[in-house]
TrEMBL record:
Chain's role: Zinc chaperone that directly transfers zinc cofactor to target proteins, thereby activating them. Zinc is transferred from the CXCC motif in the GTPase domain to the zinc binding site in target proteins in a process requiring GTP hydrolysis.
InterPro entries: CobW-likC_sf (IPR036627), CobW-like_C (IPR011629), CobW/HypB/UreG_nucleotide-bd (IPR003495), P-loop_NTPase (IPR027417), Zinc-reg_GTPase_activator (IPR051316)
Homology family: Belongs to the SIMIBI class G3E GTPase family. ZNG1 subfamily.
Keywords from the UniProt entry: Chaperone, Hydrolase, Nucleotide-binding
Catalytic activity field: GTP + H2O = GDP + phosphate + H(+)
Protein name: GTP-binding protein
CDD domains: CobW-like
A GO MF term: nucleotide binding
Signal peptide per UniProt: none
SMART domains to which the protein is assigned, alphabetical: CobW_C
């Protein structure tokens, strides 16, 4: 029986995973995907940032895919397998904090999953601007590179040639086998990413002999997330001033911020994106007529000053 190929998209917070996922979902390739999105924040934002498609998107919030929600992943996969034939392949976008090992392990140690699905490749998106910093302070960033079959060295617009060459050297020292592609906005021929048949258990066992042993010790206790919602419209100028100031002063600790915001007198949703001190945002699409216009904002990082962030966010309300 043919097993359904599964591609795991990983990469640290803000590297460009959703950007890649959206490319895959919008390009004409004649394939149907089932998509599983996992995010770390309490409120689902990622799910709404995934382009609208005919594909089915399963959200896994409230935890990291590699830890507490792994049981959910197995349940989702088992459920999907019962509907085989409705899609050709599965894409899993992990949180930026995920250690890919236990996610990959799912495809080898859970019998039901193993019988029906096969891990095609781990695709890791790397943020050229921030990866060196991450390799210095995050074990997960390193694991994401070590486990990769395909690496997109993304955000090449934010690094120069010398940076890119140095980073490629760092990547090679962690993973000799992966294909590395330089990308901007994850622009790549998708044939280089999908249907690779690249995952190689022997290679993994070579550098992680305990890979198939069940039992996963992992915590993100120094990193937390806080999210805010507000039904009152926000003032765009106040928000921009506040968020710029927050990221300029606390951006070293705030690894990721993102939101879907309702600004006063605007019919479109504003999507805000921050990675450390870099931020951008734009109006995306109209609020649906019967959808409540609720602003949602999430911060993920270390030492988050929750009361100050909350007070600052509330002060952005428009009157
Ligand atoms: N300058 C620049 N920005 C990029 C590039 N690729 C993606 N971005 C931006 O980086 C931000 C984060 O991109 P996402 O695709 O949401 O990243 P992610 O890895 O899914 O983020 P999390 O799911 O929160 O971990 C967005 O504002 C993107 O528009 C790139 O090549 N260059």
């Amino acid at each position: 029986m043919d097993r359904v190929p599964v591609t795991v998209l990983t990469g640290y917070l803000g590297a460009g995973k959703t950007t890649l996922l959206n490319r895959i979902l919008t390009e004409e390739h004649g394939k149907r995907y089932a998509v599983v999105v996992n995010e770390f924040g309490e409120i689902g934002i990622d799910n709404d940032l995934v382009v609208e498609t005919d594909e089915e998107v399963f959200e896994m919030n409230n935890g990291c895919i590699c830890c507490t929600v792994r049981g959910d992943l197995i349940r989702i996969l088992s459920g999907l397998m019962r509907r085989k034939g409705k899609f050709d392949a599965i894409l899993i976008e992990t949180t930026g904090l995920a250690d890919p090992a236990p996610v990959a392990q799912t495809f080898f140690v859970d019998e039901d999953v193993q019988a029906k699905a096969k891990l095609d490749a781990v695709v890791t998106v790397v943020d050229a601007r921030h990866i060196e910093q991450r390799l210095a302070d995050s074990k997960e960033a390193r694991e994401q590179i070590a486990f990769a079959d395909v690496i997109l060295l993304n955000k090449t617009d934010l690094a120069d040639e010398a940076d890119l060459a140095r980073i490629e050297g760092r990547i090679r020292s962690i993973n000799k086998a992966a294909e590395i592609h330089r990308t901007e906005q994850c622009g790549i021929d998708l044939a280089k990413v999908l249907d690779r048949g690249a995952f190689d258990l022997d290679r993994i066992l070579e550098f992680e002999p305990s890979f198939l042993e069940v039992g996963h010790e992992h915590n993100h206790e120094d990193i937390s997330s806080i999210s805010f919602t507000d039904v009152e419209p926000l003032d765009e100028q106040l928000f921009n001033r506040w968020i710029s100031q927050v990221l300029q002063t606390k951006g070293a600790d705030i690894l990721r911020s993102k939101g879907i915001l309702s600004f006063k007198d605007q019919d479109d949703q504003f999507v805000f994106q921050g990675v450390h001190m870099l931020m951008d945002g734009d109006y995306r699409k109209p609020w649906a007529p019967d959808d409540p216009r609720i602003s949602r904002l999430v911060f993920i990082g270390r030492n988050l000053d929750v009361p100050a962030l909350q007070a600052g966010f509330e002060a952005c309300r428009a009157f």
